[in-house]
């Protein structure tokens, strides 16, 4: 024989359960449970059993339990959960990988009919084709301005029709038509709204970020810091290399424009006095080694002379008529 507990006893029992979870788990998924039935929620509990625990309850009771537990333990990180307890939400305590648990929760969705007054989470489009309804049901289609025709004694929709737009409330006519057509346009399940990880709170989209995404965002941040530092002439670790290079360019420009010189500037002045040295310096990069006293024209002629030798190797010693 089961003993019925009073409301006060149920609250004490719930408080102990929640406090034990706060001590045991450091990762929590806050999920919206709108339009989720008890059977569906039980299936989710069974699917997550082993690594995770789903806890539902009144937000006011959960807030009070968290506040009291935070005062007792001195762990103020739990208080970050309080702003997230808005609406019909539940807590999923887990020890597993947050991304894997979030993906597992998303699998448990159940199709649902369009009920009157419900806000549509997606666009509902009625596809063209035979509905199987007799001609006496055409009044539903006429009210909703859906083009139809009678084909072999049944009503047939001619073109696809956007019946309900996302964010609109479902009317009685739309709900009746979708019920007659046997269309269950919506699907519901626990939707992860926020993630709590050892005191930190962030959006579930963060779980989808890869290392490449993090590196790209980090590089973008460094680029912005560098640009801002250079614009303000404020030295930072990110901008220091660019500042040194720009300063060196200014000093080099002064040395080139005046008689002042230093070892690194002398080579640049030599190249400016004799531009042909640029071509000589670039010759080794192209694979042609020119003598010290050779001109760029002589180096090019020597390169042309080597080409027939390569062609003779390809002929393997045979002429065209052998």
Structure report:
By secondary structure, the protein is an alpha+beta fold. It folds into four domains: 9-109 and 189-208, Alpha-Beta Plaits, CATH 3.30.70.1730; 124-184, Ribosomal protein L10, N-terminal fragment, domain II (Molybdopterin biosynthesis moea protein, domain 2), CATH 3.90.105; 209-258; 274-310, no CATH class. Helix content is 46%, strand content 15%. It has eleven helices and twelve strands. The protein has helices at 7-24, 38-48, 59-73, 98-107, 138-143, 172-181, 211-232, 240-257, 263-273, 276-282, 296-315, and strands at residues 27-32, 52-55, 89-94, 110-112, 124-126, 129-130, 148-151, 154-157, 161-164, 186-188, 191-197, 200-202. Strands 2-3-1-11-12 form a five-stranded antiparallel β-sheet, sandwiched between helices. Strands 6-8-7 form a three-stranded antiparallel β-sheet, with no helix packed on it. Strand 7 (148-151) and strand 8 form a beta hairpin. GO terms for molecular function: large ribosomal subunit rRNA binding; structural constituent of ribosome. Residues 289-322 are annotated as: Disordered. Keywords: Ribonucleoprotein, Ribosomal protein.
């Amino acid at each position: 024989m089961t003993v019925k507990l009073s409301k006060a006893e149920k609250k004490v029992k719930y408080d102990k359960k929640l406090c034990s979870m706060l001590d045991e788990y450091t990762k929590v998924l806050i999920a919206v449970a709108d339009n989720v039935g008890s059977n569906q929620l039980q299936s989710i509990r069974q699917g997550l059993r082993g690594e995770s625990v789903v806890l539902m309850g009144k937000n006011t009771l959960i807030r009070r339990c968290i506040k009291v537990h935070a005062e007792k333990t001195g762990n103020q990180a739990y208080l970050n959960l309080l702003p997230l307890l808005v609406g019909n939400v539940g807590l999923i305590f887990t020890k597993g990988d947050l991304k894997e648990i979030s993906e597992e929760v998303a699998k448990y969705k159940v199709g649902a009919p369009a009920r009157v007054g419900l806000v549509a989470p997606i666009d509902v489009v009625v596809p063209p084709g035979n509905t199987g309804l007799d001609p006496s049901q055409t009044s539903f289609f006429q009210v909703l301005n859906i083009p139809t025709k009678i084909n072999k004694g049944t009503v047939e929709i001619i073109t696809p029709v956007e019946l309900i737009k996302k964010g609109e409330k479902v009317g009685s006519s739309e709900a009746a038509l979708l019920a007659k057509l046997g269309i269950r346009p919506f699907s519901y399940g626990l939707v992860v709204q926020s993630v709590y990880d050892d005191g930190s709170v962030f959006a579930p989209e963060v779980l989808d970020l890869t290392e490449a995404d993090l590196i790209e965002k980090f590089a973008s941040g460094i680029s912005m810091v560098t640009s801002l530092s250079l614009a303000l002439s404020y030295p930072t670790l990110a901008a220091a290399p660019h500042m040194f290079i720009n300063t060196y360019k200014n000093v080099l420009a002064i040395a080139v424009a005046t008689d002042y010189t230093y070892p690194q500037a002398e080579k640049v002045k030599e190249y400016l006095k004799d531009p042909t040295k640029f071509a000589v310096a670039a010759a080794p990069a192209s694979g042609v080694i020119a003598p010290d006293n050779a001109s760029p024209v002589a180096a090019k002629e020597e390169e042309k002379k080597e080409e027939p030798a390569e062609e003779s190797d390809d002929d393997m010693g045979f002429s065209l008529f052998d």
